[in-house]
Amino acid sequence: MSDTPAPKKQKKPSLTEMRRAARSFALQALYQWEMSGNAVADIELQFRMDNDMSGTDLSLFNELLHGVPANVAELDRAYEPFLDRALDDLDPIERAVLRIGSFELINRIVVPYKVVINESVDLAKIFGATESHKYVNGILDKLAARVRMTEINANRGK
After folding, report:
1. pTM, to two decimals
2. Which of 128, 123, 134 lies closest to 100 in space, CA to CA?
3. CATH number of the domain where residue 35 is located
4. From the first residue on, what is the mean pLDDT of each consecutive set of 10 residues in the chain (158 residues)?
5. Which domain does 64 fall in, by range?
6. What is the tally of structural domains in the chain?
7. Which among 3, 33, 51, 77 is most buried, taking Cβ atoms within 10 Å?
């Protein structure tokens, strides 16, 4: 008999963790898309080859990576009225986070608006400038008030 302990089984990531990973990878891929101008399909292939995405909600990653560029003009128009500067003056990370958050607020109604905002704020904290998470929070909160009014009112009535 050996004295070496049995290897520990790796814990399967929760759905929340898998979605968080998908948003993180999507943010990085969308940043690369904006900065490089490369085709989304090429960036997706590179991400899938270069990263361990086994703990990632690949469906969400795919939806964000393809959905944001396909709707980028609509998404930018949705949050632009709440900006205090020109869209082109936004940091590329802030812009990518706002696009992901806007996409989810508008197109992924099954995700509670508070979750969308919190996940976007977390992305901004990890990848953005020091105070960008506060800016992202304010913009998405205002957008949520416009596109998720029914949900917000229902939560207030509880």
Report:
1. 0.91
2. 123
3. 1.10.940.10
4. 61 94 98 96 96 96 98 98 96 97 97 97 96 97 95 80
5. 15-151
6. 1
7. 33
